[in-house]
Every structure is written in structure tokens, then in C-alpha cells.
Amino acid sequence: MLHTLAVLVENNPGVLIRVAGLFTRRGYNIDSLTVCQTEDPELSRMTIVVNGDDQIIEQVRNQLSKLVVVHSVSDLTGESVVDRELALIRVQVSTETRSAVLQTVDIFRGRVVDMGRTNITVELTGDIPKIDAFVHAIQPYGLLELVRTGKVAILRSEA
Amino acid sequence: MSEERTGIKGATILLNALQQEGVDVIFGYPGGVLLPLYDALLDSPIRHVLGRHEQGVVFAADGYSRVTGKVGVCLGTSGPGATNLVTGIANAFLDSIPLVVLTGQVSTGSIGSDSFQEVDIIGITMPITKHSYLVKDPRDLPRIVKEAFYIARTGRPGPVLIDLPKDVLAQENVVPFSNEMKLKGYKVFGQANNGKIEEVAKVLSESRKPVLYAGGGVVTAGAEDVLRLFADKTAVPVVTTLMGIGSLPLEHPNSLGMVGMHGTVTANYAVDDCDLLIAVGVRFDDRVTSGMGHRFATKAKVIHIDIDPVEISKVVKTEIQIVGDARQVLAEILEALPGFANPDVTDWWNQLRDWRKKNTIQYDKDRLTPPMVMECLGEIAGGDTIVTTDVGQHQMWAAQYYPTVNPRNYATSSGLGVMGYGLPAAIGAQIARPKDKVVLITGDGSFQMSIQELGTIAQNKLPVKIILLNNGVLGMVRQMQKMFYNERYSQIELQGNPDFVKVAEAYGIRGISVNSPEQVRGAIEEAFKHPGPVLVDITISEHENVLPMVPPGKDITEMIVR
């Protein structure tokens, strides 16, 4: 099962390699990893999506917590969270397909951010199933290139 | 005017910070980028012990740490100096030994340019250090040194590396920053969980076949006295790991000896048959479980007490988990015990005694055998002598037969199993505790991996006694080729062996040769009478095997006993 871990780490050179190295060394698989500075410039926030059963996830959490550069680890899986991913997708278009492609982009509330003679680039934000669904829908027209950021997530505020 | 205000050299700031941490000795080996540090060392009260190879200095620092409980400090230059430390760092990491490893590095401006004697030692050692620092500004040294020692010795101890670029050491007129630690991300687990303590006491009281399985965590926590009280009070039998040797002496009535691959028959049967396994400061290593956690102690409820949450349920499914310091948790359990009835273990002890009676391995006392040497050595040297060992058959014979009574008197490479550890570890131990007797138990294979350190022994006049079990082969490999590879012996003969007595004498060390059983006692007695270092070269047969032995992939009850 996929778990989303929110990991607060020191914002220093070498931190990413410590975290990534841990995953390689212990044989855990990273599905996606995003990292950026937080509101506190001394800290970075990593959102790591990792696959594994409960016992493996427990190990991953404990191993991460052990790193001196890791301040906290929380498993957002099963919690009430807002999660988003950004994707940039280049799609082939011709005079025949152009309007259908644009319609699809519209349905998914994407934005066209670049336009060439034979292709357009779409910016799409959403949770992972939405992006997957868009990729699936657009594929028949000719998917030329796809870049995804990986998931970022934050806990919902209490009601 | 104070030093701080006028500013001092980077290397001096480092040495002052080490002194503040109570460092009295550094085991090291100089080199180009360390020149500023070795220069400053001339004006420092810290003693420096010069090894003959960087691997020797890190093992010596490790031995120093094991016999004192203090943080060991070693130093190597950049490039090859640093890479030669790697095996020793891995050894300390696997056995959770607190070390601060100092490495030289090329100047900050040259890092990354493949300059002379440059390696990325932080990158190389990342998986085998608890933490590491590259010092870029000498003003950070007081804080970094303080943090490094704190991280090394607290929680589950381990090696911490500080990489020191030459310009950082050489910079003059430095006014250091404060040494206040900034370790928001570092967590130490020490608080026991009270609800669970009661649960342990209750489960123990209901148990009929309990076993306590003690490991290195008991030694780290200094919990051997509490363990003994616990054993005395509850009559629970105790097995130990290799790392836990001495935490309950072999002659204690509750001791069943070592468990695992070369453990005693009784200890292995007991763990297999018990209904409650209290695992304290252990990690269910594959040398204990035969690599099969799911088939280990299957009839038992397992209670796991360890300071490292990562170890809990890593290998074996456990019913009660307590994250905390072994001494503290055992003490709390002891306090909770009076509220519950003592477990009725009469039948269990009858069973254990019966197993012991039927399965104690007898050896021929008239032949020159390793067990006979170990027992004779134990009688003469005594249980309070510091023992270091190398790795191989002799290590297991020492573990099985040497009557250690204090776990801080025993240093052996357990997790990494690194040959060549014993001699430098004996050096570290003797430097740490100059008044105590130190004996190295080694084999002819291991000994030659660190034989150059005889120079360090000679230079420092260290009265280490070296008991060399010499069978002319790589005995443990031979034993496994005999048992599991149809006696197809491959690359085990050490035909080029030197005359070890002559080698010792060439270093100015007394050498004694032993070839017959009647010479053993006299030679060992003579070695201990002699005030200086002595090497006793004891010829044993290559046909001697370490027994019992659990073959790889077999349950721990399926032992080869003859």
C-alpha cells in the first residue's frame, strides 16, 4: 500500500542524500519525493510516497526518525489531508484534434501554458487520480512528454 | 586578555574542544593535511598514540571505548588515511560502539577537484556512521565536537565522523562561536513505558518456562548488576549473545551460556522451548536466529526491550515492546515484581539441568585442545582480566570457555566479524586501563592482518599477553568447508606463516613456543609473570572444530555436536 510521509528535515546540503541513501540501503522503494524549504528557512519539508506493508512503513518511519537531520516524520495516510500534484503535459495536436484536446483540458480544468504548431503544453494540478485520468484521456491524441512533480500533502485544518 | 578574544588556530580550537569532552588519548596516524593539527598537538596535554596502520588506530579507539564505556577517538589523514579507517568505523557501527572519528580533508577550496589524497569520506561512510560533519568554518568546531560526542555516546551509541579540511585546521586568529548544541532533530529514547512494565511483571509471573536473552544493550547501559538481581530474584535462566558476554558470568547458576550458532545446546534448546522470551538490548542477529526470525522462539511470547525503536519487530514479531535504556527498564521491572508472584520455574529448571547434563561437550583434558587452553588461561589470568579476541574459531572458543565476569572486560568484533581487530583492540584496552591485565586471544590468520601493530606495543611498552592459537590454516573456513562442502578445502592453508616467536622477538617482545599439552600452563604462567608483552605461540591441530554448530539455514536446535 502507498503511504505518504511528511518529513521535516534540516535545510542543509547533504540532507537529501542521507534520506535517499537510507531508502536505498534498507531496500525501501520511493514512489515519489518532493522537497522544498518551509516557512522556517532552517527547515525543509519532504513529502515521500513509499510503498510497503504496515511493518515496512513502521521501519521506514523509525529509520527516518533516527537520522540526526530529521526533525519529525508523520504518516499522512488515512489522515484527512489535501494533496496535490502538478503536471506539465505536451500533447500532439492537428487541426482535426485541436478542439477535442482543448475540450479535454477544459474538463480537467487544465491550462494551456505553451502552444506550438503541432503541439500544446498543458499545466494540470490535482490529486494523483485526476492527473492519471487526464493522462489516460489525452493519450489517444498523442502524449509527447510528461513531467510530474510528485505529491505534496498537508493536513486539513480541524473543523 | 583571554585566548578567545585574541583568537587562536583552528587546530587548537579542535584540541581544546576535545579536552572539554574529557579526551585523554587520541589514536592516530599523521599525514599531509593534518600537519597543522599534529603541530598543535605538541602543545596539547592530550596523549597521542601512533599506530602502524589507520585500521589499527580505529580498532584501538574501539577497544579503548569497549573497556571504559567512554567515547574512543581516532584520527587519520585525508584520502588513504580516511579509507583505511572505514572497516573500523563499520565495526563500531554494527556493534554500537561510541567513537569520534577525525579525518583530515583537503582544503575547502580544493574539495571536489580530485586533488591529491582527496576522497569524499563523508559519502563513503554515510551508511556506517551515526552522523557526520564536514567542518567548513573553524568557528563551528566547539559546537560540532560537542554535538559529535553527545550523538556518539547517547541513545544507541555509534561512530560519528568529523571531516577536517586543512585550511580549517590551519586558520589563525579564529574567534570561535559558542559550543551550544543545535540538535533539534536528534532524539534519545530513555523513558520506559509504565503501563508496559506492569504487563511484563504479570506475564513473567504467569510464565512457566521463561528465558532472558541479554545482549550488547545490557553492557552499554551498565545493566549487569540489575540483570544479576533480576536473575537472583526470579530464577529466570539467562542466555547471552556474543556482545552480551560477561553480563551474567558463566558460573552464575542462572547462566545457560551463549545462544546461537555456536551457543550451548542448553541455551538453544531453552530459547526454542521457552514460553516467554525477555529480549534485552539485542537485535535478533542472524548468528542467533539462524537468519530465520519466523522460526525463532515460536512457542514464546516475546518481550523486546531496546533503546533503538528501529530494532523492535525488525526481525521477530514481539508481543510487548519497550523502548528504553536496558538498565532503567530492568530496574523498573524489578520494582514492579513484588506485586506479582514469582514464576514457578521448578519443572523448567529440572528440564534445563537435564539438557545440560546430557549435552555438555566433553573434551580430552590430556590433549592440547583449544578448550583446554582457554580454561587454563581463565584459571591463570582470572575472570577480571581484559580479553580481546580476533575473529574465527579462537573467538568462539574464547566465548564458550573463557570465564569473563565483567562485560567491560571483553572486546570482540561481533556484528562485522572483522579479522585483525584483536591486537589493536588490546592496545586500546591497555592504554585505557594501564593497571589491568590485558590478554589477546587470536589465531594465526587474524593475527597477520594486524601484525604490524606489534610495533605500537613495543613503542608504548604495553604488557599485553598474546595467546596465539596456531593451526596453520584459516580454521573457521576450513571447518565450514569440512562440514558443508564435502571436505573440499579451498585456499585455507597458511603455508608461508612466519615463526611467530621470532617475529615477536624482532620487535623486542618475548616469545614462547608451546607444542605439547604439558607446556601450556607453564607458558601462560610465565607470560603473566613477565612484566612486558609476551606472545605465546600455541600449536593446535587443524582438525579441531568449534562445537556445537548450527548449520546455516537450520533451526537453532539442529546442532552439530560432534
Automatic annotation (TrEMBL), chain A:
Enzyme class name: transferase
GO CC terms, sorted: cytosol
E.C. designation(s): 2.2.1.6
InterPro entries, per the entry: Acetalactate_synth_ssu (IPR004789), Acetolactate_synth/TF_NikR_C (IPR027271), Acetolactate_synth_ssu_C (IPR019455), ACT-like_dom_sf (IPR045865), ACT_dom (IPR002912), AHAS_ACT (IPR039557), AHAS_small-like_ACT (IPR054480)
Pathway given in the UniProt record: Amino-acid biosynthesis; L-valine biosynthesis; L-valine from pyruvate: step 1/4; Amino-acid biosynthesis; L-isoleucine biosynthesis; L-isoleucine from 2-oxobutanoate: step 1/4
A molecular function GO annotation: acetolactate synthase regulator activity
Pfam family, one: ACT_AHAS_ss
Catalytic activity, reaction form: 2 pyruvate + H(+) = (2S)-2-acetolactate + CO2
Keywords assigned: Amino-acid biosynthesis, Branched-chain amino acid biosynthesis, Transferase
Transmembrane segments annotated in the record for this chain: none
GO process terms (BP): isoleucine biosynthetic process; L-valine biosynthetic process
Residues annotated as domain ACT: 4-78
NCBIfam families: acolac_sm, PRK11895.1
Quaternary organization: Dimer of large and small chains.
Functional note: Catalyzes the conversion of 2 pyruvate molecules into acetolactate in the first common step of the biosynthetic pathway of the branched-amino acids such as leucine, isoleucine, and valine.
Family: Belongs to the acetolactate synthase small subunit family.
Protein known as: Acetolactate synthase small subunit
Organism this protein belongs to: Desulfosporosinus lacus DSM 15449
Organism placement in taxonomy: Bacteria, Bacillati, Bacillota, Clostridia, Eubacteriales
From TrEMBL, chain B:
TM segment ranges: none
GO (cellular component) term, any one: acetolactate synthase complex
Pathway annotation from the record: Amino-acid biosynthesis; L-valine biosynthesis; L-valine from pyruvate: step 1/4; Amino-acid biosynthesis; L-isoleucine biosynthesis; L-isoleucine from 2-oxobutanoate: step 1/4
Matching Gene3D superfamilies: 3.40.50.970, TPP-binding domain (3.40.50.1220)
Domain of life: Bacteria
Family under the similarity heading: Belongs to the TPP enzyme family.
Annotated protein name in UniProt: Acetolactate synthase
Native source species: Desulfosporosinus lacus DSM 15449
